[in-house]
Amino acid sequence: MAVELTDGNFADEVTDEPTLPVLVDFWAPWCGPCRSQGPIIEALANEAGGRLKVCKMNVDDNGATPARYGVMSIPTLILFKNGEPVKKAVGLQSLAALKAMAGL
Predict the structure, then answer these.
(1) What is the pTM of this model?
(2) Which is the catalytic residue, given 34, 52, 59, 78?
(3) Domains in the chain and their CATH numbers?
């Protein structure tokens, strides 16, 4: 299951993650493509067990973090390694594309 992020726990869950790469899905409940992305994100979280941390952040409830990482459109997916953003994808992504992005 994907980890729910807030501006308050982002550092603990993402930038301070000591070992795993972290994929963050920036989304909003009113966004159609985001709703389509949701089940794909959950499938990735289930398949990635122990190799990738998968997280979701509602941009309507948390504005500071998306602004910090230049999220202008949703869904935006950013892969973090060692606390730094290394890859970014905007728009609905397939499971295969996300696995490739994460190196799985």
Answers:
(1) 0.96
(2) 34
(3) 3-102 (3.40.30.10)
